[in-house]
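pasting for the record
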Amino acid sequence: MENSGGMYLNMAAVTSRVGVARLLQAVFGCTTFSLVAHQGGFNAAYGTFCMAVWCFCFAVTIFIITCEFTRLHNCLSISWGNFTAAFAMLATLMSITTAIIYPLNFVQISCHPIGCEKRDFRISASVFAGLLFFAYTTEVCLTRARPGQVTSYMATVSGLLKIVQAFVACVIFGALMNDSQYNRYVATQWCTAVYGICFVLTVVVVILNLTGKTATLKCPFERFMVIYTFVAVLMYMSAAVIWPVFCFDQKYGSPHRPYQCSKGKCSWDSQVVIAVFTYVNLVLYIADLAYSQRIRFVSHP
C-alpha cells in the first residue's frame, strides 16, 4: 500500500518555533499539575482554581497540537488563527495568575508542619508553573501580528487587548462578589453595569472573530470596533471617577482601611481591587482605541 501519510501530517506543527513552544507548554503543564496532585497538595478555592487552570490549559494545548499535526483544524467551523491566538493570550494571563497564587498560598521556607518532601514538591510545582507562563508568553510573541503583516484579528495588538480586557473584567467581577457593597448607591450600581456591558460586548467581539461571523454585522467591522471601543472608554472613564468617590470619600465610604477588617473578608479591600483594575482596564481600552484605527480586519486567516 502506498504511504500517503505525509499528505495529512503537518510536521511543522511540532518542529517550528511555535510548535516547540506548544510542546513545552504541554510538558510544563502536565508536570505542574502532576507534582501538585502527587505530593504537593492543594486545597480551598485558590488551590482548586490553580489545578483547574493547569488542566484546562493542558487539555486545550494538546487539542491544538493534535489538530495542527493532523490538519484536523481544516475540518472545524471556526477561525483557527483567531482561536489559537486568543487561547495563547488567555493561557498566558491564567498561567501567570496561578504562578503567583500557588506559591503565595502553598509554598513556605520551613518544613514544618507539612514536611520537607511536600514542601519540595510545592516549590518544584511553582517553578514549572513559572516556566509554563514563559512558554505561553513565547507563543504570543511569536504569533503576534507585525506591522504590515496580514493575519488574524486576534493576533493583532487590538485582538490581544480584547482578551486582557475580558480577563481584567473577570477580576473585577470576582472582587464585586466578595462583599464589595456595590449595591449601596445608584452610582456604584452604574459602575457595575459599566463593567458588565463592556465585558459582554468584548466577549461578543471575540466570539464573532472565533466563529468568522464578523461579516454578518450591518456596518464594517473596523468602524464598529472604533465606535464600541470609544464608548467603552467613555463608560470606563465615568466608572474611574465615580467608584473611588463613592467608596473612599469620607462622605460615602472610608478613605482608610477599617481596623476590624479581616484578611480576605474585607469590603474595603475589594473596593480597592475594583478601583485599581478599573484604571487598568481604562488604560487598556484607550490603547485599544489607538490601535483599532491603525489596523484592517482580515475575516479569514
